[in-house]
Each structure stands twice: as C-alpha cells, then as structure tokens.
Amino acid sequence: MERQSQRLLEELEQWKSRAAKVTRAFSGAPGGSSSDPLPECVGKIMELEEALNRQIDQMVDQRKIIEKAIGAVPQTLQREVLSLRYIKGESWEEIGEKLHYGVQHVHRLHGWALKTVQMPKDAIECDCQPMV
Fold first, then answer.
1. 10, 43, 45, 102: which has the highest count of C-beta atoms within 10 A?
2. How many CA within 13 A on the CB side of residue 69?
3. 84 near 98, Cβ under 8 Å?
4. pTM, 2 dp
C-alpha cells in the first residue's frame, strides 16, 4: 500500500507540474495556446488527492490492526521481528543487524512468530489494485 501511495503522490506531483506550466502558458507569454487544459489538470489533481486520502485512511486502519496483532504475540523478540519487518519495513538483513542475529535465525524467529499471530476477523483485506 505504501508503494501504491507513493505512485499516487508522484502522479499528483506530475499533474501539479503540468497545471503550473498551463498557468504560465496563459499568462500572456508569446506562444500560449487558445484551448484551456487547466480544468482537466485541476480535475485530475482533485481526483488524485481524493484517492490518496482514501489510501491513507485505509493504511491507517490496516496499521492499527497489524499493530494490535503483533502486540498480541507473547514473545518479545518475535514481536520485535514482526514490528521491524511489517511496521518499519526493514529488510531481513537490517533486522538481523539490529538484533545481532544472522538472517537465517531471523527467518526462524519470524516463522515462529507467524504461528502465534491471529488477525482479527474485522481485518481489512489489502486491495492492491490502483485506486485511480
């Protein structure tokens, strides 16, 4: 979901940049066009901002559910592995360095932790399709 949000942010910036160029073209500078693409740019910007806000709301809800599920894992070290991986988004190597374990042991800890994780029934499923 974070990658999808990043994609939406990048597209939003492209449309804002395009709108700024359109605005300069209508400022009376020579070579300006007679058609008005500004409404299209503004409409697209609004559409992307709405999609991004929905995405952020969904991410916040999912993060709360994930944090609650991780918090219910009884072993502190296993909770730490899950938190570093799924909340902070760290790689297996980074987790191993932080915890002073090899990657293979980090994978073991992760596997044991996953056996104890229970996602709530009201968990939101990830909709990994583009929202725009």
1. 45
2. 21
3. yes
4. 0.62
Of residues 104 and 28, more confidently modeled: 104
pLDDT higher than 70, residue 68: yes
Distance of CA 46 to the CA centre of its chain: 19
Q: What b/e readout covers 41-79, taking b as 16+ CB neighbours within 10 angstroms? A: beebbeebeebbeebeebbeeeeeebeebbeebeeeebb
The tokens 């944090």 sit on which residue? 67
Instruction: Give the CA radius of gyration of the chain.
Output: 22
C-alpha–C-alpha distance, residues 103 and 111, integer Å: 12
The residue type at 45: I
As a whole number of angstroms, the distance between CA 49 and CA 8 comes to 8
The H or E element that residue 42 is part of is helix 38-71
Q: Which of 40, 51, 52, 50 is nearest to 15 (CA)?
A: 40
